[in-house]
Specification:
125 residues, alpha+beta, 4-stranded antiparallel beta sheet, 4 helices, elongated
């Protein structure tokens, strides 16, 4: 009986080999390295990480005066209501893992800036 041949593309390099279909269908586990085994994965603990609301610090760029520190997003947006321009303040967020204030990027600051005026409307409702 004639053998069926297939093109094996699993070779390294630029070429491919013609191999019998029987050898191409063999499971890769049969060619395992002796003495090598993967460790069994243990299920991860279902501990839920503590969720803390973001705390913000807003500093006036010209005077370096702290306008607000340790406030939530709603209060930070209310403080930004009184600011003339987005470039007049530096906005920081507290990073609890690093235990330091991180300066927000311009895009992140813009997200807060775009919500100005809405916080007071929500407070009235």
């Amino acid at each position: 009986m004639a053998k069926t041949w297939v093109l094996e593309t699993q070779t390294k390099g630029t070429g491919a080999n013609m191999v019998p279909l029987d050898s191409a269908l063999k499971k890769p586990g049969a060619q395992a390295v002796p003495g090598f085994v993967f460790r069994k994965l243990e299920p991860q603990a279902a501990d839920e990480p503590e969720v803390h609301p973001h705390r913000f610090k807003i500093v006036d760029v010209m005077t370096r005066q702290v306008l607000a520190e340790g406030v939530d997003a709603r209060v930070a947006i209310c403080v930004l209501d009184d600011v003339r321009s987005i470039v007049d303040v530096s906005v920081f967020v507290w990073e609890p893992t690093a235990e330091r204030w991180r300066l927000l990027t311009f895009g992140e600051t813009r997200l807060l800036w775009d919500h100005r005026g809405r916080a007071r409307e929500l407070a009235r409702a």
